[in-house]
Amino acid sequence: MFQQPLDMQPPHPPPPVPPVPARRPLLKTAPRLGAVARAVTAANSTSRSVGERVMYARKQRLVLQKNPVTGGTPITPEEAVTLRQVTFGSALVPPRTDWLRSGLVFREPEQPLGFGLVAARSTTGGLLSVVQAQVIKHLLFDSAPRDAQRKVDELLRPTLMQQQEALIHAISIILWRAGEKTCSRVCLPQDLPIVAASQNFLPDGVTEKLHLYEFTTLEDLQIFIKRYSYMFQEETGPGMMLLLYSAVLSRGPSKVMKDLDNDKAFLMGAAEEGSHCVIMLLLTGRATPYLHNGVIYVGDEDHYALPQFGVLARTEVGLLWDEATGSDDESRKPGSRLKTPSLPVWVIRCAGHYGVIFSTNRELLRNYHAERRFELQYYTCEGGYCQMTVDTRYEEDQNSSKETNRENSVIPQLEKVIHTK
Question: For residue 396, what pLDDT is reported?
Fold first, then answer.
């Protein structure tokens, strides 16, 4: 059977083209599209502006950007031994787990007590209370102009960004003060250990990995702390230990030993929640055990008078001490420069526990009439919180029996500490 060549076969007919529907006039649909666009835009802007809030994940600390730690000067074996001895008393015994596994962690942002740091009771309580006091000071008095109309409830419910800013400010100010506002040092660990175990040093997982960074301006220090803030905030990281180490290095280990005024002493001491020398180092920049004002010369006719350096200037954040904690030695009781700071925020030790009391009224310590009746708030990082009204007015015609009965009654320890002010 004859077949026609392929190249001579007739082409297939093209498929039919469907008719193009007639277009509707654009002038009739444009207004409708514009209205829909405006409605969608308004809905989006409304959803973002309700309460001016931004929704974050429940565990905000996990979303912090983690920049790898690079650069710096590796710590030498001699520096590692000295740092451990001055801070914890021995380089052959590792620090307690409280320091190796405790970070600076906030509560949930934009919630009641959102300004608060949280931690279990441990030897880090004193250091954490000082950081907490600095955070509260920044939120209430530093983050907004003095004449601004501010809502206290909003200031004490900071956003995640405000929490970060307050913590960066607190750490920077503490280290800058310890470095006498001229030169501060920060230590951060890297991955590989630098100092090997020896007869003089036992590794603890942190000290042998440290690198040191030095700063001569507060701005550079704040930028660096902001970049590596996650190192201080990891819940199971050594954040508190890094802050304490950095404060010691900023002050200088030799100066810290001179401040302690005892060749056998070390910074942490044996107190349950840390020595008050740690408090003084972070509050005043000097690790002195003496709480009185100025310098007192102590001696007798058989010995030369030696100086005891107390608080040399009025502090921004104060310190109140319960009478049971101290002794009859007046040098171990806070002087007026600690009792009357420039701002109404105090680190307080009551019944062996550290906390913070504060007032939202900036004029409390500047106006005599404001001290007659005022509000105070008390917060501890272990979870304690209360609000109280303090009334310093009293009936002058009270007889001695009533006064005696009051003195013998069971007065809460916190009220006793406030009365020392």
Answer: 43
